[in-house]
Design a protein that fits this description.
The protein is α+β, with helices and mostly antiparallel strands and about 425 residues long. It has twelve helices and 16 strands. Helix content is about 35%, strand content about 25%.
């Protein structure tokens, strides 16, 4: 199966289990229709600098006018040069951007002063190709850490954008930023607002090194709505906590994580505190959650997409602690892979999470099958549990029994293939 066909298969699988808000309409993509993807004012192009292979490994998305911008970044203290540069550009440009450039195959992390110069060169070359200022370009990279960029080849490749029309599809752009991903991740929706329709589109990459703060990934979102940068930043940050910061594959947070959004202002005006602001935010959170779940679905070696749902915690913060502990437990994740209803591993993770726990009150269910009841009573059908755990997707719910706090984190199983993929990642 081709990577693009696998993307459509993943899209259909997640769509079947996604409840979109009534005012949000996902675009029904089919092969050959991807160019409907971009909101008004945005265009994209891809090219190859042969960083690791001969496939496209550089993506540029441009806006035909200054766009409000916001971004959230990794909290890893060994963050990469493009992260530092993009933060600086957001500060110096008053959060007004004209383009995003991203390369795959090389993270430009742990590369010192040269790495910063190379990131600056990416911005300068992109700006020259598009006729904008370097400070109006966000820069991102993903791939191997500790290796300098082949910046001369990359400069020539980026310079080629000046000689062509940017007319790449969302699928093209998503494929150009992949590393170990097995399929490109993209989604576009139309949002019904009070005065008309706005489009919101997003692409993402991620498969391994996925863990909250932020989950290791790149995500780029684009809308033709008109939104003030400060409001856009608040929306992105809040939606990020319940989407890209609510997934885990392997417990490793990268040096290059970034989620950014550009708003061209070519369609509906969205004011702070308005009904439209609430509608747009719910659409943004839904799109980011969909992309986040695609990342977990594509977890390196993953065969299961599992939602860890905590209810009845003393607070939402406690629920989040418990959910992350269960979702990130290697023992729980290997039990998922082996389709073993080992509820002891689940409650052990809850117990060490830092959340307030009364062990005698815990309830554990797999979908609707009760596995553990309060008082450590466990009487369930192993056969029925095995059927659920054999499914490609299911929900594990833990009821804490001591409050109203709740949280969800999406995770995947841990397989032998994960070790094989990461044992020789640099080759």
């Amino acid at each position: 199966m081709s990577k693009l066909k696998k993307a459509y298969s993943a899209f259909e699988r997640l769509s079947a289990s996604t409840s979109w808000p009534e005012h949000v309409t996902p675009l029904p993509f089919k092969e050959g229709e991807e160019k409907r993807f971009w909101p008004t004012g945005f265009n994209a192009g891809t090219t190859s600098a042969a960083i690791k292979t001969r496939r496209p490994d550089i993506m540029v998305v441009s806006s035909d006018q200054p766009s409000s911008a916001a971004a959230v970044f990794t909290r890893n203290l060994c963050s990469a040069a493009p992260v530092s540069l993009s933060k600086e550009h957001l500060r110096t440009s008053s959060a007004s951007m004209r383009a995003i450039v991203c390369n795959s195959g090389n993270a430009n992390a742990a590369t010192g002063r040269r790495g910063m110069r190379d990131a600056e060169t990416m911005a300068v070359q992109t700006a020259a190709a598009l006729g904008v200022h370097p400070e109006e370009v966000l820069v991102a990279s993903t791939g191997v850490i500790g290796v300098p960029l082949p910046i001369e080849r990359m400069s020539g490749a980026i310079g080629s954008f000046s000689a062509v029309v940017l007319e790449g599809s969302g699928a093209d752009a998503a494929q150009a930023i992949m590393t170990t991903d097995t399929f490109p991740k993209f989604i576009a929706v139309d949002i019904a607002l009070s005065g008309g329709t706005a489009r919101l589109s997003g692409i993402a990459k991620g498969s391994g090194m996925i863990c909250p703060d932020m989950a290791t990934m790149l995500a780029f979102l684009f809308t033709d709505a008109a939104i003030d940068p400060a409001l856009l930043r608040e929306m992105l940050s809040a939606a990020n906590e319940r989407s890209f910061n609510a997934i885990t594959v392997d417990g490793d947070t990268s040096t290059n994580d970034m989620a950014a959004i550009l708003a061209s202002g070519r369609s509906e005006q969205i004011a702070r505190g308005s009904d439209d602001a609430a509608l747009f935010f719910s659409a943004l959170e839904s799109v980011m959650t969909f992309l986040a779940r695609l990342i977990v679905l594509d977890g390196e070696g993953a065969t299961k997409l599992v939602e860890i749902r905590i209810v009845g915690a003393e607070s939402d913060d406690d629920a989040q602690k418990a959910a992350r502990a269960v979702a990130g437990s290697s023992l729980v994740k290997t039990a998922m892979n082996g389709e073993d209803a080992n509820w002891g591993r689940i409650i052990a993770a809850v117990g060490r999470s830092g959340a307030k726990v009364d062990p005698e009150r815990l309830t554990v269910t797999f979908n609707d099958l009760v596995i553990l009841e309060p008082g450590y009573r466990s009487d369930f059908s192993e056969e029925e549990a095995k059927k659920i755990l054999a499914e490609p997707g299911y929900t594990i719910t833990v009821s804490m029994g001591n409050g109203v706090g709740r949280a969800s984190v999406w995770t995947c199983d841990l397989s032998r293939e994960y070790v094989e993929i990461n044992a020789d990642y640099r080759t």
